[in-house]
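tool_call: predict_structure(chain=1)
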Amino acid sequence: MFKWLAIFVLLWFIWLIREVFPPFIVGGIIAYLLLPFVNWVDSTFKLPKKIAVALIYIGTFASLVTLSNFFGGHIMDQATNLVTQRHEIMANLLDQLSQSYGWSIDVEETATELVADLEGWFGKPGEIMHMGEILSKSLLSVLVCMVSSIYLIIDSERVGLFFLRFVPPDRRSTVVQLSGQMNVMLSKYIRGQIFLVMLMSCVAYIFLHFVFQLKYALLIAILSGTLEIIPVLGPLMAIGMAVIVGVAQHGTQVAIPIFLCYWVARLVEDYLVIPRFIGHVVELHPLAIILAVLCGEVTAGALGMLIAIPVAAAIKEILDFCYPPAASEINPWAVKDEAGPHQKGEPPPPALESQEETISTHQTQTQTQTVDAKSSPKGAS
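tool_result:
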């Protein structure tokens, strides 16, 4: 009784101080992303781990600075223009729609109302544009994030042993095996998401800039790639954003072509890129994905939406490990792809059935010969 009461009090205390954890969570994500590179440098060049961490962080920082010099100015200019001209964009959109469909609306008044609604949903543009100033005032959070990520990388083995001490000794091998499976799954998922973000950003920029010549093509392309992290809802938001800007700039005739470009890109991603180069690492039902994303948004906002799928996949991995699916016990053919060319859930082909019948007949004949051999001496005596 006292044990469960202590656990409840601990969870309640963690909930009270939950606002402290985001920098540590982000630091943990950074450490998880950089740890494979640190291990590679450590094992390849035989350097001390602290020096490997320093080299990886210096290289990462230099890469970010280089990318900022190339694209940062253009992105900030487009973001500033998009925010300052939001009312004009919305007015042009409504004017194009009213001319195409014969709507009789007050364009200026409706545009003002829509802009106010968008500000209520996504925050005030002034706050968005001063995000750099907000981050500069939160130096403590940034410092905690970086320091925690460095310590988590350097002491990664000690961190694992610390949590392992709370596991009963007879269960530790099982926990280590399960954590290894989860680590493989999460690392593949994260690498796949980074690849998809970069791929979708490049593809979206190509057709938004060179085909449709949108003013904010670079910004919309980067947002389209970033929104790929949010399943189902993210691509829909990206399409809506591109269509709104395209219709406001060129008219309603570009709405369907922009939608088709995004749709074709999504089909190529789902049926060619993911199966061949990434694989379906997270085997979650679409409804489970939507539920996880919504729960993450309610619990921790944007950060919760980003980590919702990995957390849900980890929970599924634990459940599958502790409680194996009943289908694998009822139908063993549904689990083993390497058993033959047949599909999952189907009975074996006739050739395999005949082999099993031959083996069974051979075993029966062997047993009969053994019984006859045992009984023959008695009959001779």
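agent: Confidence is low (pLDDT under 50) at residues 125-132, 328-360, 377-381. Proceeding to next step.
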